[in-house]
User: Fold this.
Amino acid sequence: MTVVTRLEARGLGFAYSPDVVVLEGWSALFEAGEIVAVTGPSGAGKSTLMYLLGLMLVPRSGEVLVDGIPVAHLPDTDRARLRASEFGFVFQDASLDATRTVLDNITETALYRRTPRAPACVRARELMARFGVDLRAEHRPGQISGGQAQRVALCRALLASPQIVLADEPTGNLDHATAEIVIEVLHHVAHEGGTVVVATHDPYLISRCTRVIAL
Ligand SMILES: Nc1ncnc2c1ncn2[C@@H]1O[C@H](COP(=O)(O)OP(=O)(O)OP(=O)(O)O)[C@@H](O)[C@H]1O
Assistant:
C-alpha cells in the first residue's frame, strides 16, 4: 500500500449557498504521526471541513492534497477509490445502515475495495472486541446504544487500516473509559505513521491531541 505522509488543505473555500459561506481561503498541513484537533464553536464549519478533507464535498476554491497531489477535483469515481483505500471516516452521527447488521455495516466498505469477506470479518471481529461491541455483531443499529453505534462507526473506519483517519466528534457519546479506548486507538494509528484529524468540542480529547487548530 502507498504510505501517505501528508494531508494538506490549501486555500479551501466552501459555501452551501451564497449566504452560507463556511470556509474562505483556509489552509493547514497535517503530518503523519499527528493527531490534530480541529475545534471551534457550533456552526463554525468543523464537519464541513472534515467532509472536504475526506473528499466527500468538493471545495468551490482551493485544493486538498494527499502527499502533494491535488485530489479535491478528481472525478467522483477516483475520489471514491482514494477514499476507500486511504481514508477512514467517522461521521458525527455514526451513519450506520439501519437495515443491515453491525457486522455487515463494518465490513461493507471491504466490498468497495474488493477485499474478500472472510478476512474482512476476522479483522472486523478483532476491532469489535477491542472496542467492546463484539457481542452486538448480529444486532441492527436500532438495537444498540448511541455510544455503541459510535464505536461500530470507528470499527468501520479502521477496517482497512487507513493512512488518514478523519473523525467528527469520535468521543461525543462515550463515557470516559470508552473514550479513552478510542483515544488510545487513534494514538496507535498515529504511532504507526497514520495522520489523524478530529473535529471536537471535548476538552479531554483536545488535551490528548498533539496539536490544536481553532476554526
Ligand atoms: N447541508 C447543509 N446545507 C446548508 N447549510 C449547511 C449544511 N450543513 C451545514 N450547514 C451550515 O454550515 C455551517 C457549518 O456547519 P458545520 O456542520 O460544518 O459546523 P460545525 O462546526 O461542525 O458545527 P457543530 O459543532 O454544531 O457540529 C452552519 O452554519 C450550518 O448551518
The beta strands are 6-17, 20-31, 35-39, 61-66, 69-70, 87-90, 164-168, 195-199, 211-214. Residues 16, 20, 22, 40, 42-48 surround adenosine-5'-triphosphate (CB under 6 Å). The CA atoms of residues 93 and 150 lie 7 Å apart. The radius of gyration is 17 Å.
